[in-house]
């Protein structure tokens, strides 16, 4: 479990996103949008560190790493039904990048739905998270 859902999955996904950024994928395709799960696969906690260690002068990217995380990546709950984790994500990327999801069949649909009502956000922001952001991103 440590190599998978306990830790490894999240770290490996985060590394892949960082490699996409550092490889210049979003500079070549600035409109490219990706969706990752689990409240950002640890990336929201590393935003300042990534910007400090990997500034544009070092990476030769057009923008700081944080800009790509805020402008080219969308984030889903995916069973991470933890308010402190949600608040970190919210503070780092804003409500417009967060989408509701569950981690079914690995997690409970009911627990995921219950969690949607818990974060301290406005009703309008909750609607954006519940469906509005996905509708906008996917043109639904």
Strand arrangement, major sheet: 1-2-3
Quickly give the CATH architecture: Alpha-Beta Barrel
Largest sheet: 3 strands, parallel
Please identify the top-level CATH class.
Answer: Alpha Beta
The name of the CATH superfamily reads Metal-dependent hydrolases
**Integer-rounded radius of gyration:** 15 Å
Q: What's the domain count? A: 1
Distance between the termini: 36 Å
DSSP helical segment count: 8
Query: What fraction, in percent, of the residue positions are helical?
Result: 40-55%
Order of helices and strands: HHEHHHEHEHH
CATH topology: TIM Barrel
Shape: globular
Mean pLDDT: 96
Poorly predicted runs are none
Strand content: 5-15%
- The class by helix and strand makeup works out as mainly alpha
Q: Give the total of beta strands.
A: 3
Keywords:
140 residues, mainly alpha, TIM Barrel, 3-stranded parallel beta sheet, 8 helices, 51% helix, globular
């Amino acid at each position: 479990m440590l190599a998978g859902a306990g830790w490894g999955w999240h770290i490996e996904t985060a590394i892949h996103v960082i490699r996409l950024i550092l490889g210049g994928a979003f500079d070549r395709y600035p409109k490219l949008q990706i969706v990752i799960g689990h409240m950002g696969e640890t990336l929201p906690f590393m935003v300042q560190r990534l910007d400090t260690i990997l500034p544009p002068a070092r990476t030769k990217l057009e923008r700081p790493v944080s800009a790509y995380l805020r402008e080219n990546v969308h984030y889903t709950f995916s069973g991470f039904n933890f308010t402190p984790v949600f608040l970190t994500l919210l503070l780092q990327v804003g409500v417009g990048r967060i989408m509701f999801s569950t981690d079914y069949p690995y997690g409970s649909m009911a627990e995921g739905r219950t969690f949607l009502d818990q974060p301290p956000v406005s009703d309008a922001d909750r609607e954006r998270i519940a469906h509005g952001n996905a509708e906008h991103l996917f043109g639904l």
